Amino acid sequence: MKNLEKFALLGLSQEMLKALEKKGFNEPTPIQEKTIPLLLNSQQDVVAQAQTGTGKTAAFGIPILENLSEKNKNVQALILTPTRELAVQVSEEINSLKGNKKLKVLPVYGGQSIEQQLKKLQKGIDIVVGTPGRILDHLRRGSLVLNQISYLILDEADEMLNMGFIEDIEEILRNTNSNKRMLLFSATMPKDIIRIAKKYMGKYKLVTVENENLTVPLTDQIYFEVTESNKLDALCRIIDIAADFYGLVFCRTKLDVDEVSKKLMDRGYNADALHGDLSQVQREKILLKFRNGRIKILVATDVAARGIDINNLTHVINYALPQDPESYVHRIGRTGRAGKEGTAITFVTPAENRRLHFIRKITKTDIRKEKLPGVRDVINSKKLRISQELDKILTEQSYSEYLEMARNLLNNSDPEKMLAALLKFSFQDELHEGAYKEIPEISSDFGGETRLFIALGRMDGLTPKKLVGLIKKEANVRDRKIRNARVLDKYSYFNVPTKEVNHIIKMFKKRKRGNRLLVEVARS
Predict the structure, then answer these.
(1) CA dihedral defined by 56, 345, 334, 98, rounded to 10 degrees?
(2) What was the pLDDT predicted at 190?
(3) Pure H helices in 316-462
(4) Can you give 405-447 as a three-state secondary structure string?
(5) Cα dist. 272→30, 230, 306, 345, 518 in Å?
(6) What is the pLDDT of residues 113-155, one digit of tens each?
């Protein structure tokens, strides 16, 4: 474990070092180097300011796993995240770090079967990773008890505040014991974060790390807007239209990786999967095949792809939009190397346009929208490649062993018809238009979506229905265009088509509360 010497110096157990080696870690990131010893060797609460994508999950996950007991029957740690995607990502990362330690980790979020969550919670869980809304639901049902936890972690705290979860978070905090340790991780430090720290944390230690400068590599960046159900067919078109596809396909979870890779292999593509459940030996075998070109498509999670360093990849595909700008840059940095231009393609569902806009803004890069290649485009591309391959064989004169058979075939047949029959025999499956599913263009009003903040809430007599009515009345926007209205005590949020944003803000500029605009774009 020579390459893990710096981790060893932080005071980690041999078991943890083995888990880190299996995951391909080399040395700690700055936030890990500063946070891990603090959490291992003191009882202080911690407020850490660091960008997403700098190893924050391992920074708090490693020391928590080192300190938790395997014999405790109560929930020992609660990790709050702003989104279900991050809840799954964090729980998978912690599961992959625990090694042989018998600690149970459960992601808990809305949209997932609550009955399954109830069953697992009844059996006993050590670490719960969840979104505020669903955690509150379980607290109110009595299915989750947090009065004996050792740790409470707020991950991406500023994003949770931006999404209007501050009241939910405070209610959750009131349901926890006072002698827990609190860890708060945030990319920025707005006033509400500091207020929470002062109100609910003891004498905390502030940890900060320098922001990385995000540099975008020599890569052509494209995005396609597709529904979740059409992503696989869109991926197949992109692979098929490429002259010689050799790339990484990034998915959000291990389950997604397994499902996408299996479906690609079932369709005859030279693909394989890479995720945290593989042993180091399996991982190395797959990577060797990928480096040698025996595998052309590698489907992976961000965590599993750590350490992959291959210069001649043609494509990186974001099958799922990355959680943050740093992950986006790290992913696409795997193509466009050694002076060759690569292609980075991102699939974006209509509801993800706001997050894509944020990634473009932070990375200061142009990710242009394009239309997916049509079925006829793919077929024509394949025909062109077949013609080019035939010309290459003719030029190299590597066909002599087939000349006698060719003469026999042409003896009693029309040459043109015989060649057509031969092409059909060889390529009918590949050139059959019926093999491709039609992918309709997305033409809904929510082709781009933005979340807006309004400085009115329940204390002003607002309800979700009244909020929609107010926007409709003041800005003359149809109610079907107003979605996900969330009303809190003092303010509210709602989603509208991006193209309507400037109009709505302009219409509300006349309505002010003090010096503050009544309506504004929610902070990303």
Answers:
(1) 30
(2) 80
(3) 325-332, 353-363, 375-396, 403-411, 415-427
(4) HHHHHHHCCCHHHHHHHHHHHHHCCCCCHHHCCCCCCCCCHHH
(5) 33, 20, 16, 19, 51
(6) 889 999 999 999 999 999 999 999 999 999 999 999 999 999 9
Going by pLDDT thresholds of 50, 70 and 90, the confidence category of residue 85 is confident
pLDDT: is 233 or 495 the higher one? 233
* 3-state SS assignment for residue 36: helix
The amino acid occupying position 238 is: I
Nearest to 507 by CA among 495, 493, 519: 519
Q: Tokens for 224, please give them.
A: 């396609």
**What does DSSP say about strands 368-369 and 219-225: parallel, antiparallel, or unpaired?**
parallel
Q: Which residue has the tokens 């595909």?
A: 317
- Euclidean distance between CA atoms 269 and 287, whole angstroms: 17
Which residues does 248 contact at the CB level (< 8 Å), separation at least 6?
Answer: 298, 299, 300, 305, 308, 313, 315, 316, 317, 331, 334, 335
Closest CA to 159 of 55, 77, 51, 59: 51
Residue 9 token pair = 């110096």
d(CA 387, CA 300): 34
- Residue 366 amino acid letter: D
Q: How many CA atoms lie within 13 A of 108 on its CB side?
A: 29
Model confidence at 319: pLDDT above 90: yes
